[in-house]
Amino acid sequence: MSTTDSCPSEANAAIGKMRGSEHGPKNIDVSALVDAEGGLIDRSIYTDPGIYDQEMRRIFARSWLFLAHASQFKKPGDFFTTFMGQDPVIVTMDKTKTIRAYLNSCRHRGMRLCRADAGATKMFTCTYHGWSFDLAGALQTVPNEKAYPEDFDKKQWGLIEVPRVAEYKGLLFGNWDKDAEDLEETLGDMRYYLDAMLDRDPEGTEVIGGVMKWELEGNWKLAAEQFATDWYHVNMSHASALMVMSPTGKGPKAEIVATPGRQFLSPNGHGAGFPTHPKSRFDAQAVHEHYDYDALRERLGDAAVEGPMTTGHATVFPSFSYLPVNGSIRIWHPKGPNKIEVWAWILVDKSMPEDVKDAQRLYNLRTFGPSGIFEADDGENWSEIQAVSGGFVTNSVPLNFQMGIGSEREDGVYPGQTSELYSDAAGRSFYRHWAELMNTPAWHERPAPAPAGESA
């Protein structure tokens, strides 16, 4: 499947009728809450309900958000239900094999139209009053249609379509802003770091084993920011897991604990960190033995194989994260300022033999599945941060993101700006971009164009 934008339906005009900013919620100026240059963050950004509501309007309503993987759609009618922020959406393949996404809400009374997690269908029918919509989002049947006024036009009541849907090497993203810059432009240099996971195999990637879902107490930014920037916690938070996983049972060797590495930071809020020690390889032995590293170096380049293809971490702003060595890709669905719903997939190369795919699956579950020995440590950290952040004095003390200030540079090896592996550089960049978006009116807040013949 190529990277394409879906055709917005006429129903998208309904989105433009949202209330203008002068009548809507008051926006919060977050300038004083994020000091990206000084490396200080006000922790109220994790707890304030007003800030959370503003994120839904100014972050999630205008950003490219991960929807699904292309391998989940094999034939027309295949669908998957997910969220963009807290907006429920249906992602489906239409009769032309184009991937499209719609607000998962019936146009009649607003009930959730599709309540299945995934499946195949020819029509989406609301179980409340029976309104039915085809794979192109058009309203097809209305029970007792003759009771409606003569000017009732089904063409005006199709599903609200996500106006932009695009793919990057198997990853499907959606954006409510029809005028947003293209996905690849938004990714920028992040594409290089993604390719180290997505482009190892000429046949591409696929997801296996379904979607794992679990809830955590904590703010979505805690998880997204950690995956963008934080190698610093590994040796402390995961000490017991590293001991269990080491061949000797005594933990990794000192040179691996103090591994060299780099951290990528993007002006668009993306981030990736990765060690460059030769032993930082695929943890599942069968996966490690499967790869021809000489062929990988020829395909991806020496720097990619020695760096971002290793045991690293990364986030595509705002809420898509991945671990290249484990094949874990996940979305952090916000469920209020104090709760995250984690959805995770296991990503493998298509040409891997089945036994190698299974080895990757089992290793993923053991480490970063819902009860994985590393995953449990991370969830505990985020929940503890959130649990104490509601206190008056606690919430008035800034958080320190000063590690590595001034170390950002173009290193001549990896694209874009990088810092040291042990650094908060990508975290500062994440929050700088977050603050910029939070303080900038989004597409739905722009003044309506003046009628023809009138001056603006």
Automatic annotation (TrEMBL):
List the SUPFAM superfamilies: Bet v1-like, ISP domain
Gene3D superfamilies named in the record = Naphthalene 1,2-dioxygenase Alpha Subunit, Chain A, domain 1, Rieske [2Fe-2S] iron-sulphur domain
Q: Which PROSITE patterns match?
A: RIESKE, RING_HYDROXYL_ALPHA
InterPro entries named among the record's database cross-references: ARHD_Rieske_2Fe_2S (IPR015881), RHO_NdoB-like_C (IPR043266), Rieske_2Fe-2S (IPR017941), Rieske_2Fe-2S_sf (IPR036922), Ring_hydroxy_dOase_asu_C_dom (IPR015879), Rng_hydr_dOase-A (IPR001663)
Name all Rieske domain ranges. Answer: 65-162
EC number from the UniProt entry? 1.14.12.19
- Which UniProt keywords are present, listed alphabetically? 2Fe-2S, Aromatic hydrocarbons catabolism, Dioxygenase, Iron, Iron-sulfur, Metal-binding, NAD, Oxidoreductase
Provide the GO MF annotations for this entry: 3-phenylpropionate dioxygenase activity
* Entry-linked Pfam families: Rieske (PF00355), Ring_hydroxyl_A (PF00848)
Top enzyme category: oxidoreductase
Q: Record's family?
A: Belongs to the bacterial ring-hydroxylating dioxygenase alpha subunit family.
- Report what the protein is called: 3-phenylpropionate/trans-cinnamate dioxygenase alpha subunit
Q: Please name the source species.
A: Paeniglutamicibacter sulfureus
